[in-house]
Structure formats: structure tokens, C-alpha cells
Amino acid sequence: MAEPKKLFIKTYGCQMNVYDSERMAEVLGAEGYVTTDVQEEADMVLLNTCHIREKASEKLYSDLGRLKPLKAAKPDLKIGVAGCVAQAEGDEILRRMPLVDLVVGPQSYHRLPGMVDKLAQGGKAVDTEFPAEDKFNHMPERKVLRGPSAFLTVQEGCDKFCAFCVVPYTRGAEVSRPVERLLREARALVDRGVREITLLGQNVNAYHGAGAGGDWGLARLVRELARIDGLERIRYTTSHPNDMEDDLIAAHGDEPKLMPYLHLPVQSGSDRILKAMNRKHTREQYFRLVERIRAARPDILLSSDFIVGFPGESDADFADTMDLIRTVGFGASFSFKYSARPGTPAAEKAPVPAEVADARLQDLQALITAQQRAAQEAMVGREVGVLYEKTGRLPGQMVGKSDHLHAVHVTDPEARVGDLVRVRIKASAPNSLAGERL
Ligand code: 5AD
Ligand code: SF4
Prior knowledge:
This protein is an alpha/beta fold. The protein has helices at 15-29, 54-66, 68-73, 83-96, 112-120, 167-170, 179-191, 218-226, 246-254, 271-276, 283-296, 315-328, 354-377, and strands at residues 5-11, 33-35, 44-49, 78-82, 102-104, 125-127, 149-153, 155-156, 175-176, 196-200, 208-211, 214-217, 233-237, 261-263, 301-308, 332-337, 383-391, 397-402, 407-411, 420-428, 433-437. 5'-deoxyadenosine (5AD) binds next to strand 15.
């Protein structure tokens, strides 16, 4: 028997890329590839890229540059680029980096076997189409599993066209996977020890998949998943404020398996900027929405993304963003300096000076860090559920995630990865909590 070929995958960017990398490993597994963590051993290196900000896509070119000596030493090495940079800049990648053999966009991963055959014949393989067929119908069952918590992509793409964002171009139009397939995939995960599933989608709360009796929304899908014995926790990300339907908000109040954490990016607190961003909601509408969510689930932790230095952002606009953050009080937030992306409407507009954007980013990060600490501090003394994901560095120590998605360290020598336990929080460190098993 031939030695199995070795595949090294590097994943950049979002959780959906993490999921996609696992699925690509399975597709190529069926073609005789086993994964390796050692790049130098690989027969194929696959870079699964992110195009959301300029910095993210630049990483691809520097990593490809670093692969040159390896390719020179191993001429049979195949180098592939997948993900959103492949989708957006496929031709440019091939022109700038002749060492690349394969370019595959996010909607074409099921076609990898044919592409690999083409490489074996000595050619290059490129596929950045948006095929009509559902790639997931053509991919093998899931095999790669790391721990008791898994991702499940339920929806891909986005129709919102925020003025700064490449996702509608790189991931294409919104497509929801059918209910039955998701239930099957979820049951298979649970059969193999998964106890927590995070439903993924660029616009996950816009989910509307074909199910019994017609289209199902995300709330109905969550409620059906919650009936799976052995599945203890459900999360979903990322949501758009305008798609937070009443039944989904209600599920946060009455579905115990739906965890009390919600990532609900608002991007800016200025109505003028929200309008320029094509977000189609005001700050006041966001406040009302947060009130309704908290009425349903008072202890829910909210998180958001913020962009500073969007074209035209004035000091007053930025002050509105800071005010929104203070008013809402987030449990965690992610902040980014605006990055002009070719092909998006905002890229045509004059940028805010870099020093101004840098200063605003610093101010905003200080505020969200303080809020994150405060939210953690507020957990001290409380009893929470913790799902153990791995062992800690100290003897007998376990590390897991709380219901509110905090990392928690617990000394619990008898425990095993995958145990879901009750813990009393005793202390808060900068990026984690310490607790005692009850
Ligand atoms: N510049 C800066 N940040 C961006 N994001 C998306 N596009 C851009 C851009 N062009 C941020 C948004 C989004 C997160 C995933 O990345 O905040 O919610
Ligand atoms: Fe991008 Fe999210 Fe806006 Fe869609 S909703 S365009 S993914 S920022």
C-alpha cells in the first residue's frame, strides 16, 4: 500500500473557516490524505484565507513567500489557497505567486477531489465559481472532532451589503442548509461525544432552511436541536440586529439549552455612520432590541464588533459610539480599524486620517476591555455551568467554558474532558475565571 500523503492546513480568520478547514480535511481524507501539524512533512499545504480586512489578506502573501524554500526543496509539494482571498483574488494569486498549484473558493470545496486529480497530472487547478449545487450534499460525513464543542454551519453568505464588507462578494448570497441535514449532522456529532454545538452563519439569525411544512427560522431549528438527548448547549453566531425575530428572542427566555450569550454586532453608535454603513437600523432601534433581549433573558451577555475610522466618522460620531457602548454594557467586544476593501462602496470614500483612527481605536479598546473585566468580576460568587474542553497546565486542573462563554479554570482531578459540571466562581483574572466544582 502507498504511504498516505500528508496534508497541512493553516486556517486564518473566522469560525466558519475553522469549520471549512475540517470539512476540507475530510474531503481530502477520502482522497488518501492524512493531516499533519508539521508543515515540513506535508505533501500538500493548504492555506484557508480571510479577506475581511487588508491585514488578513496580506498574511497570505507573506506566508506564501515563506513557503518558497520548502517548495524548492520538495518540488512535488502542492500548495493550495482556499477561502475568501482565493475567491476574491484568485487570478492575482496565481500571477504573483507561481508556486501556487491550486486556488479554490469557499463554495467549491466539494470539488477538491477532481482538482487534486488535475494536480496529479501536472496541471494547476482553479475553481472560484458559485456552483448551483449545495457543496455540503457532496461532502463526506464529519470525522475530525476536537473535544466536546463543535461548530455546525447552518447558513452561508450575506445579502446585507454593509458598505465596508466583502462577505457578500466572497461568500455570495445567503443560502440556508435544509433542516433535516442539519439535524442529521448534529445527531452524528452528539453520537460521537459532542455536547455543545455552535451554529454558524455569516448572518445566522437570517436562517430560513427548508423543513417539515415549509421554511424554518433559526428559533424553530434551535428548539428542534434542543430535543436531541445528549446535546446540552446551543449557541449561534453571527447575528444581524435586523434579523432578531420575536420567536428567537423568546427562545432565549424559555429554551434552557440556548446559552445566555449573544454576539450582536452594531459596528457604530452614530446614526449618521450607521446610515453610511448601510446597516439599516438606528442606535435607538438597537437599544430597544437589547431591552427586549434582556427582558427575555436578564443575565444574557452581549458582545459586539465595532469599526472605528469609517469614512466620514467625526469626533461627534465616535463619541456616539462610546456612548452606545457605555449605555449597553457589553460582556466582550471586538474592535477594528476601518480597512478599505476593493470593490465595496465605502472604499470609494475619503479615509479618516490614520492617527485619528488609531487614537479612537485605543480609546474604544480601553473601554471595551474595562467592560469585559467588569462582566467577569460580576461572575465572582455566582454558580455557573462549565463544559470542560481540555486539561489545564496545573496538575488536576480542567479548563472549560461557562454558560456565558468565559474561560474557567477548575481544580477537579477526577473529571474528564466533556464533563458538564456546576461551578462556583471564586476569582477573576484578566482573561479567565477560576472556580470550584460544586
Ligand atoms: N474594515 C474593518 N473591519 C471590518 N469588518 C468587516 N469588514 C471590515 C472592514 N472593511 C469587521 C466588522 C465585522 C467583523 C467580522 O469584521 O466589525 O462585524
Ligand atoms: Fe458583512 Fe455582516 Fe454586513 Fe453581511 S451583515 S455585509 S457579513 S458586516
